[in-house]
Structure formats: C-alpha cells, structure tokens
Write a structure and sequence with these properties.
3 domains; about 475 residues; globular; FAD/NAD(P)-binding domain; Enolase-like, domain 1; single chain; seven-stranded mixed β-sheet; about 25% strand; five-stranded parallel β-sheet; alpha/beta
C-alpha cells in the first residue's frame, strides 16, 4: 500500500537531511529515502572523516615539533590503526546524532534505492517514489505532493584509469586504508588533492602532485596558490604543474603503480606505492528515475530555476546534483530554500559570492567573493590590502606564522569584492569576511571593527587597513 507525504526527499546527505528537518519544523509530513546511511558522503566518506585524519596529522606534526615549545619528548610514533579508530568513533557519534534528529522531527526514514516514477496508478503526475530494498521484499511506494532530489555526487575517474580502491584510489578508498603507503601520487591539485597531500606529508609519506592546470588550487586567488605551493614544498611535497596524465598508460605491477604523463613536450614516468585520483566529483543523476519525468539534465547535472525547481515544478533538486559549488554548507542552505519555497515562501537563492570556500590543509585556505584576477576581468578597478600572520602576536604564540590575509576592494566605491586567507585557523576566521560580504560592507568598516588582542583575527583588521595603506603593524 502506498503511503502519502507532503514531501519525500531522495538522498539523506547534508542537503537532504537538513531539508527534511526544516520541512518538519514547518509542519510538513516528511520522509527521506537513503540507499546507504543518513549523513551521506559528507559524514561517512568526505568532510568529517577526512578532517579527522587531518587533525591527527596536525597533532603528529605538532608533537614532532614539541622541542620548539620547550617540551622534550621521545620520538613520536604514528599508530594509523588508532587514527582510523578515532575517525570511525567521530563518524559514528555524528551518525547517531542525525538519527536522533530524524526521530525528533518525526521524519520517516526509508532504507533503499529510491526511484522516481512517471504518472501511474499511484498518481496522475510524476513523483511517486519506488523504494527498492535489498531484502527481496516488494518495493515500497511513497506518494508525495513534492519531491526534493538530493542524491549528491561521487568521485570522478580519469579517462581509462580504473579506480580499484586498492592501488588506484578515490578519496573513498583512501579513507579505508589500513596502513600508510611509503609513497603516494596524487592526480589533481584542487581542494581535495591538496588536503590529502598536506595530510599524508604530515604523516611522513612521500607525496607527489600532478596538476593539469598551470597552478595548484586553480580556483583560488593566484597569490594563495603560490603560497600553498611554497608551503607544500617545505614539507617535501613534489608538485608538477601542466602535467597531462596518460590514463591508458598507467600500470600496476609488483605492488607499485607507474604513472605516465606528458610535461613540457616530454613523456615522463613516476612510480609510487599508491595513486589517489582527485579530479572532481560527478553528480548522481543515473538510476534515480529521471527518465520517467520531464526533468532536464544539462552538462551532467539537473537543471533548476532560482527556486531549485526542476522542469516538473513539484520536483526540486539541491546540492551536488545541480552542480555549482559542491559544498555541504551550500547544499544545506539550498535544501532550506527549496523547502521554504514549497510552503509558499520567497527565499533567496544561494549567492556564490557570499559563500565561504575552505581547504582544510596545513596551512588552511579560506576565501569569499572575487579573486583579484576575477575582479579585474569583470572590469573593476581594484585596490589590494595584504597582511602576514608573521606580524600577529597570537600566530607567534601558536607557533604557526605561515600565510596572510588579502582584501580585494573596489577602488571607486570601496565595496568589498573578496577576501582570501591562507594560514592558521583561517577556515574559522573566514566567517567575519562572509558576514561583511552579506552586509555589503566596505573594507574600512571591517577595519574600524575592534579586533581582540592577541588574536588571529587581528590579521583581518590589519589587512582591511592595508587597503588604504593604514596598517599599524606592517
């Protein structure tokens, strides 16, 4: 027998379960359908477990440098089994938290693969959800008034290079490693690749990055990319830019992988114990019943309007499956916006220029708004303010003075166009800059804000002052 709901959400990752909670708060009857576990990729294969690894790497690095803080220790030893156990414990605790939130919101949770049906005996319109279970029982049918597709994404492969998750890994396979390799080749120098490079280098693994573009972190401000490259080279990370991997010539033999690539007109080889492919993620748009609807898929993502509606107005889509900024916090806000539109509200679509982008490497990177190059391309006359963490007392106290804060402002109006940071704890500091962007602040308004001393946030105030050449400690 089919069960009716106001809203059924297909996919219970960050975007899906947040949308479900908001819908419940607004009085809708809600169900979520998840083929794996509540929390999705972010909780189980992405954000949380990788950041747990990064924290362990940070602690290991700190202990090795303890002598600099006046603390004498024996040579530290990394127990990677314990690292994995700690990661799993954190994930399990958060997983239980999400389960509790579903019960608290009286949200029904269905386990299995959810597929959208076309018009049928259950409904004259598309949108009935058929749930296929693995236990051999008859498919369950859910009949909603509205649907939200939140099926997320999966790691991309590269050409003919097959991810076996043993020797040639995606981030999913890397999270399941039972022991660290002695050497690792990372294909892709974007956010995920840089996080893994930083982490493995701090664990003591010999790391080499192959990046096709002319710099690592190609979507960040160019000065940020240069500083990250300098920092990684200090960790002995090899970085080869402008490298085109020949995916059909990668060989696995004798427990090692040989990667062939073109660089500066020559074909070269590098041998490593493992290869991590980090070339982006692809939207999960197949096998969910889209072909039974009028929903349009363009450039391998679902097309939506400003309210996150597909061509079928009662079916919405959010998160990685619609492309754009593939970030958990973006998916969550898109989910809230979609639900509020369902109940008749007029929410604003997520503005990419007011969204923080973060890289949780060591050093960390965080940014909001336009890079200097992008601002110039848009025709702005810009003025720049930069301030290094090495001039900040709190950074010296913490023993990490890497990086800087950079402001990009409109020279004509003083409007804040972008803020870019690399250094200690900048993924926490960036929220001040995001708020400034949301409030359409100027750099001098940020500069007039009294920042506590000693704190890392003083670098933000000084960089804002530096736009007009008024920095105090520079």
């Amino acid at each position: 027998m089919a069960k009716e709901y106001d809203l059924v959400i297909v996919g219970a990752g960050t975007g899906g379960y947040v949308a479900a909670i908001r819908a419940s708060q607004l009085g809708l009857t809600v169900a979520v359908v998840e083929k794996d576990k509540l929390g999705g990729t972010c909780l189980h294969q992405g954000c949380i477990p990788s950041k747990a690894f990064l924290r362990s790497a940070e602690v290991f690095k700190t202990v090795k440098e303890a002598e600099e803080f006046g603390v004498t220790t024996e040579e530290p030893v990394l127990n990677f089994t314990k690292v994995q156990e700690r990661k799993s414990k954190i994930v399990e605790q958060l997983y239980k938290g999400v389960q509790h939130l579903m019960k608290k919101g009286k949200i029904d949770v269905y386990e299995g693969v959810g597929r959208i049906l076309g018009p049928s005996i259950f409904s004259p319109t598309s949108g009935t959800i058929s749930i296929e279970n693995n236990n051999g029982t008859e498919n369950e049918m859910l009949v909603p008034k509205n649907v939200v597709i939140a099926t997320g994404s999966k790691p991309k492969s590269l050409g003919n290079l097959r991810l076996d998750e043993e020797m040639i890994l995606s981030s999913d396979g890397a999270l399941r490693l039972k022991q660290l390799p002695e050497s690792l080749m990372i294909i892709g120098g974007g956010v995920i690749g840089i996080e893994w490079a930083s982490m493995f280098a701090d664990f003591g693994v010999k790391v080499t990055i192959l990046e096709y573009e002319d710099r690592i972190l190609p979507l960040e401000d160019e000065e940020i990319s240069k500083e990250m490259q300098r920092s990684l080279k200090k960790k002995s990370v090899g970085i080869i830019i402008g490298a085109k991997v020949l995916s059909d010539q990668v060989k696995v033999e004798k427990n090692q992988v040989t990667v062939s690539f073109e660089h500066n007109g020559e074909t070269k080889n590098i041998v490593s114990d493992k290869v991590l492919v980090s070339v982006g993620r692809s939207a999960n748009v197949t096998d969910i019943g889209i072909e039974n609807t009028d929903i349009e898929v363009k450039n391998d993502v679902i097309s939506v309007n400003d309210n996150y509606q597909t061509k079928e107005s009662h079916i919405y889509a959010i998160g990685d499956v619609i492309g754009g900024l593939q970030l958990a916090h973006v998916a969550a806000h898109e989910g809230i916006a979609a639900v509020e539109h369902i109940v008749g509200g007029d929410p604003q679509r997520v503005d990419a220029e007011t969204v923080a982008k973060c890289t949780y490497s060591s050093p960390e990177v965080a940014s909001v708004g336009l890079t200097e190059h992008a601002a110039n391309e848009k025709g702005f006359q810009v003025k720049i303010g930069k301030f290094p963490f090495k001039a900040i007392g709190k950074a010296l106290v913490q023993g990490d003075t890497s990086g800087f804060v950079k402001f990009v402002s409109d020279a004509k109006t003083d409007d804040l166009l972008g803020v870019h940071m690399i250094g200690p704890h900048v993924t926490d500091l960036i929220s001040e800059a995001v708020l400034a962007k949301v409030l359409d602040a100027t750099h001098w308004e940020v500069a007039e804000t009294i920042h506590p001393h000693p704190s890392l946030s003083e670098a933000i105030g000084e960089a804002a002052l530096a736009v007009d050449g008024k920095e105090i400690h520079g």
